[in-house]
């Protein structure tokens, strides 16, 4: 993937294969002496039983520049929390496991609900938001990175390349987004990015006209990647979506809050593979079906907030334009995969396109029925204003859980 193309909207930092991981690590260790770097790992308990996370911990154990690792643990009972604490104890860095389902953390959740500020639903967005709050309460990190716990092709080089643009004090970037080819060496993956987001953005530009926001999103080579690095000062005002629109939502927040020169994307891997969601054609509340609806809603809401007017007719036109654009791109993906010796099932790809086309209209109906609805969790600045003691009490709750149960 080595090239040096710049799209003119955001900076693209490539891997030109001319700097070693050891050299990057040495620089990051120097930066970390005055700019502490922390890592958030949002994790389901089930991921502790998979093949990816143990290998990720083996790689992270070799990283010398991390100040703190915060693990947000979801869907775990008391015995599972105890097991998780032992599981993550292999990390030599300062680390903490936040048991999101503990009685103390549920009491924190209740306080938020009483204020009308609680996340609307459990999931990765809520988990990441809670971990960000914990780090804000610690008040000792300058750079925060986030990545998933199901990456089967993980290496410490991915983290080094992800954090370098925001850790380097001479760079202007406040947020860095990772990108990579979604392939396991056998198949071309990344269906939602390839077959939904890319053609949808093309179709939106044709149907609603030129929008700077659309050009901005189209600048990202992998807009749905779960790998971010951010400078800590922007975290308190960051609105985290609670649904599958998390990645698009964070990019939208960067668009809203930051100058374009403060945003970059960085190539972090030559091959990337993780857990694959089912298409879930029969159940719109699960799998890629739900994901596609949430992503569409996130994009529609942002465009509406910037003045775009939507109607039933617009969404019908958008569906038809998307469908044609997606089929055109599928030809490109098929030829690209064929030339690189990768498998791609055209029948299943077209099935995905048909589902996504239907879900564009479904998302449009949901949006039109309640255009003021928003899945965003309140910012931590707002929470602190409503309850100045909550962050301090969350620190206490996490510490007490560790003391009592581990």
UniProtKB/TrEMBL annotation:
From the broadest rank down, the organism's phylogenetic lineage runs: Bacteria, Pseudomonadati, Pseudomonadota, Alphaproteobacteria, Rhodobacterales
Q: What name does the UniProt record give this protein?
A: Glucosyl-3-phosphoglycerate synthase
Q: Which Gene3D superfamilies match?
A: Spore Coat Polysaccharide Biosynthesis Protein SpsA, Chain A
Q: Which domain of life is it from?
A: Bacteria
């Amino acid at each position: 993937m080595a090239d040096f193309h710049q799209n003119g909207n955001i900076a693209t930092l490539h891997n030109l294969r001319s700097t070693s991981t050891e050299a990057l690590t040495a620089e990051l260790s120097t930066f970390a002496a005055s700019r502490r770097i922390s890592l958030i790992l949002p994790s389901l308990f089930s991921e502790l039983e998979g093949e990816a996370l143990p290998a990720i911990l083996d790689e992270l154990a070799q990283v010398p520049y991390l100040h703190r690792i915060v693990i947000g643990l979801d869907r775990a009972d008391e015995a599972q929390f105890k097991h998780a604490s032992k599981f993550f104890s292999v990390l030599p860095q300062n680390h903490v496991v936040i048991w999101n389902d503990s009685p103390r953390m549920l009491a924190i959740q209740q306080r938020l609900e009483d204020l009308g500020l609680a996340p609307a639903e459990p999931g990765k967005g809520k988990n990441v938001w809670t971990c960000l709050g914990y780090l804000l309460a610690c008040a000792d990190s300058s750079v925060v990175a986030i990545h998933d716990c199901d990456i089967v092709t993980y290496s410490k080089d991915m983290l080094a390349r992800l954090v370098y643009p925001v850790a380097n004090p001479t760079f202007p970037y406040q947020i860095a987004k990772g990108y990579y080819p979604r392939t396991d060496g056998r198949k071309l993956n990344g269906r939602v990015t390839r077959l939904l987001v890319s053609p949808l953005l093309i179709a939106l530009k044709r149907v609603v006209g030129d929008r700077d926001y659309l050009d901005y999103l189209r600048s990202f080579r992998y807009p749905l990647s779960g790998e971010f690095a951010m400078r800590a000062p922007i975290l308190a005002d960051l609105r985290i979506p609670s649904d599958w629109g998390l990645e698009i939502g964070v990019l939208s927040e960067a668009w809203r809050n930051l100058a374009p020169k403060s945003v970059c994307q960085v190539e972090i891997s030559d091959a990337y593979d993780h857990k694959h969601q089912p298409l879930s054609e029969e159940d719109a509340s699960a799998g890629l079906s739900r994901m596609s609806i949430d992503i569409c809603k996130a994009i529609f809401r942002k465009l509406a907030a910037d003045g775009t007017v939507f109607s039933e007719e617009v969404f019908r036109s958008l569906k038809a334009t998307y469908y044609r654009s997606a089929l055109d791109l599928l030809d490109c993906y098929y030829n690209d995969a064929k030339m690189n010796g990768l498998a791609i099932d055209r029948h299943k790809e077209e099935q995905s396109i048909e589902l996504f086309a239907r879900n564009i209209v479904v998302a449009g109906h949901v949006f039109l029925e309640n255009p003021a609805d928003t899945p965003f969790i309140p910012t931590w600045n707002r929470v602190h204003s409503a309850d100045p003691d909550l962050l301090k009490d969350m620190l206490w709750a996490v510490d007490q859980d560790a003391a009592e149960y581990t």
